[in-house]
Amino acid sequence: MKLNKAQQEMVGFVLIVVIIVVIALVFLLISVRNPDKDIKDVQLSNMISAILATTTDCSVVEPELRTFADLITDCLDNRICKNLNIDACTYLNSSLMNITLKVVDTESRFEAYQVEVFQNSSQDKIFEYKQGNCTGTLKSSSQSVSYEQEKVIFKFKYCTKLIE
After folding, report:
1. Domain that holds residue 147
2. Domains in the chain: how many in total?
3. pLDDT tens digits, one per residue of 80-108
4. What is the spatial distance between Cα 46 and Cα 35, in angstroms, rounded to a whole number?
5. Among 76, 74, 68, which Cα is nearest to 97's?
6. 82: helix, strand or coil
7. For the segment 104-129, what is each residue's pLDDT rounded down to a tens digit?
């Protein structure tokens, strides 16, 4: 009788191990089938926060200089940088392109990247710049800027270089 009970316990243990292996394989297959999902990047999120908080040379109401977050809302309101005598959208596009290029130049891990600023509800793009083709892992981060009753999304995606 003892031998029979020991055999039953072994069969039970083997069944539990088989069930765990099957569950692990299912999770593995699910993760392999969805490789194009964005991976959130904390460093990238911090970089976006720093960019949005950066003071620009634009002043809509002198002498107050605007941040990039302010410029996004100024652009949507069709305001003008009075000290520079250009509209906020034109200045936002050129200065955001410049800061993006400076950031990308310091990051050797970027194979391809895309920066976009768009209204969440309508998906209308305020700014978009992309460079390169992705062959590695896609990572992204985004932050929102409040505008009236909705959100404006600042999103940065990049593709890491494969180390060979």
Report:
1. 37-160
2. 1
3. 999 999 999 999 999 999 988 888 777 66
4. 24
5. 68
6. coil
7. 777 666 778 889 999 887 878 889 98
Helix (H), strand (E), coil (C) string for 1-23: CHHHHHHHHHHHHHHHHHHHHHH
- 44 domain residue, yes or no: yes
In a domain, 20, yes or no: no
Say how far apart CA 41 and CA 138 lie, in whole Å. Answer: 10
**Domain-embedded: residue 59:** yes
Q: Using an 8 Å Cβ cutoff, are 100 and 115 in contact?
A: yes
In a domain, 16, yes or no: no
For the full predicted model, state whether its pTM sits above 0.85.
no
Q: Which two tokens stand for residue 9?
A: 């316990």
Contacts of 68 (CB under 8 A, 6+ apart): 51, 52, 53, 54, 56, 92, 95, 96, 99
Quote the CA–CA distance of 126 and 36 in Å, as a whole number.
Answer: 25
